Amino acid sequence: MLLAVISVLLLSSAGASCRKSPPAETGSARPEENVGEPDSVRLTENAVRTGGITVEPARVMETVRCIAGVGDLEFNSRRLIHLTARASGRLERIVAFRGERVVEGQVLAEIYSRDYLACQAEVLQAAERAARLLGTPDEQAARAFLGAARANLLPLGVTEPEIDTLISTKSIRRLLDVRAPFGGRIIEQAAVAGDGVEPGVSLFRIADLSTLWASVRIYEKDLAAVRPNVEVVLRTQAFPGEEFPGRLVLIGAVMDEKTRTVEGRVEVRNPSERLKPGMYVEASISCGETRRALVIPESALQEFQSRSVVFVRTGPGVFELRLVETGERTGGRVEILLGLAEGDKVVTSGSFLLKSEMLKKSLGEEHEHD
């Protein structure tokens, strides 16, 4: 039933952009029904105030020409790592788990490895021998042997300061730490405590989500107007009305023969991690060219059955529904190609009340004709 009402509403407003509803006086505190034209609704002054209805005039402004594109958010591959085991052994303990945030250097897991124990023992033996042969003809050979023993620990992820601590304390550590190389979030955990591991066995994937990439499809006809390093605005259905600034860092070298598009890589900051890899995005890519265009706040734009409409105040308490054709969107404003004129006062907040009254009025008129 609701779809039928919306269809009636859209049909009745088809000619709204060519005419204005006459002003009318306010009456009681309740919206007045059956007043004005079929594509308008009248509210009392009190209803306008309590409904939080505000208006703003459509303006002609200097705008930057933008190219529209669509795409998907992805991980920043420069901040994505696949952690694997560096020694043979048994995964003794898991300390951090999938979905958790980690910081650089944080211990994620511990591995019991005989190779690790043997390498530590070799370092201590070499250090003791080098100290004993200090000042003798064999000192240089002993120091070289110690250097080789130290080098055997480095591929296991042991740092030089940790090796120095091993030599000074003469205390062999039983478990080998697996540490996060940078801060981020664990997006995959491939092993559990007790698993046997070998070098190269997958343990974790970590992604730094503070920056993401958007793979945006740029149409062939728009390529001549697009340059690398220009500003890009991203929008996603998850956060209606919000814009996320980014920068076009790369234009692909190969065109997709089926879609006639080229991939553009947009880098976008995401410090709060609100944006998620895999989200669908719409992109406005700046071309640097300026022009004058009729624009309204994006909050004024409403959608009915995939058709764009706005409410225009045509008199005291009188609001008319207009079908509009939109153009580019940027900076929280949307270009209007058809349906409005400069100075038309569009509703920027409180449209829900107007839509409700319009639907009730259209439903009542439909019943009258039955």
Q: Give average pLDDT, whole number.
A: 87
CATH class assignment of the largest domain: Mainly Beta
Number of helices: 6
Structurally, the number of domains stands at 3
Strand content: 35-45%
Query: Using only CA atoms, what is the Rg?
Result: 33 Å
The biggest sheet amounts to:
6 strands, antiparallel
Number of strands: 22
Identify the CATH architecture of the largest domain: Beta Barrel
Q: What is the CATH third-level topology name of the largest domain?
A: conserved putative lor/sdh protein from methanococcus maripaludis s2 fold
Q: Provide the succession of SSEs.
A: HEHEEEEEEHHHEEEEEEEEEEEEEEEH
Would you kindly provide a written description of the structure presented here, covering whatever features stand out?
The protein is an alpha+beta fold and 370 residues long. It has three domains: 2-62 and 291-369, conserved putative lor/sdh protein from methanococcus maripaludis s2 fold, CATH 2.40.420; 67-77 and 210-289, Beta Barrel (Elongation Factor Tu (Ef-tu), domain 3); 78-207, Beta Barrel (OB fold (Dihydrolipoamide Acetyltransferase, E2P)), CATH 2.40.50.100. The chain contains six helices and 22 strands. The chain has helices at 2-12, 45-50, 114-132, 139-153, 160-169, 351-369, and strands spanning 40-42, 54-57, 59-75, 80-84, 89-94, 101-102, 107-112, 175-179, 184-189, 196-197, 202-207, 211-219, 231-235, 244-256, 261-269, 280-297, 302-304, 307-315, 318-323, 325-330, 333-338, 345-349. Strands 1, 2, 17, 18, 19 and 22 form a six-stranded antiparallel β-sheet that branches. Helix 1 crosses helix 6. 31% of the residues are buried. The model is unreliable at 1-36 (pLDDT under 50).
